[in-house]
Every structure is written in structure tokens, then in C-alpha cells.
Amino acid sequence: MNTTPKLPKVLYLAMGGTLSAHHPQRTELRHYRTGHYNGQQLIAALPEAESLASITADDLPPQKARILLMLCIMAKCAEQDIQQAFETH
């Protein structure tokens, strides 16, 4: 009998923004470059996470992320409210 607890599955969608940013000098907070690390590299930088969840990563361009977000919230909001939020932000 296997007594190892089943870990939750997590999908990390990397969108190439601030979390993936890099600058050779860690304290330089201005002139950094976004999109430096992909999702797999970010997960590999956190080996402790393997004990908490089964994590996979996928790189998601910002345009597709907006579409995915819109699809996810459509069930919760009126279409006009969703469109207004995307036009505002």
C-alpha cells in the first residue's frame, strides 16, 4: 500500500512579465529586462516547491493570457462589465 500523500497539481502560466525579469545587478530596479526566464526556469529556481505540489509550467503570451482571463470571468460577470474592465486596464 502506498502511503505517500498525493500532491496537488499546479499549472504555472508564465507570461513573460515582471516575475520573469532579470538584471545582472539584483539591486537595479530600473532598466531590467522582462521575459528573461521561462516558466520551467522559474520553477527550477524553487526546488522546495516540489515537496508542496506537482508543478508544471507553460509559457503564455500576454495576448492569450487576456483571452484566457476573459473566458474565465465571463461566467461571473456581465459582458459589458468585462469589456469595460479590459478597456480600462
Whole-angstrom Rg: 17 Å
List the helices and strands in order.
Answer: EHEHH
Number of E-state strands: 2
Q: Return residue spans where pLDDT drops below 50 for at least 5 consecutive residues.
A: none
Distance between the termini: 52 Å
Tell me roughly what share of residues is in helical segments.
Answer: 25-40%
Helix/strand-derived category reads alpha+beta
Strand content: 5-15%
> What's the tally of helices?
3
Largest sheet: 2 strands, parallel
Q: Total domains, how many? A: 1
**Major β-sheet strand ordering:** 1-2
Mean pLDDT: 78
The coarse overall form would be flat
InterPro entries: Asparaginase/glutaminase-like, L-asparaginase_C
In words, what does this structure look like?
- The chain is of the alpha+beta class.
- The chain has one domain.
- It is 31% helix and 13% strand.
- It is built from three helices and two strands; from the N terminus they run E-H-E-H-H.
- The protein has helices at 39-44, 62-73, 79-88; strands at 9-14, 54-59.
- It has a two-stranded parallel ribbon with strand order 1-2.
- Helix 1 links the parallel strand 1 and strand 2 (54-59).
- It is flat, with a radius of gyration of 17 Å.
- 2% of the residues are buried.
- The model has no long low-confidence stretch (mean pLDDT 78).
- InterPro entries: Asparaginase/glutaminase-like, L-asparaginase_C.
List descriptors.
flat; 89 residues; alpha+beta; 3 helices; two-stranded parallel sheet; 13% strand
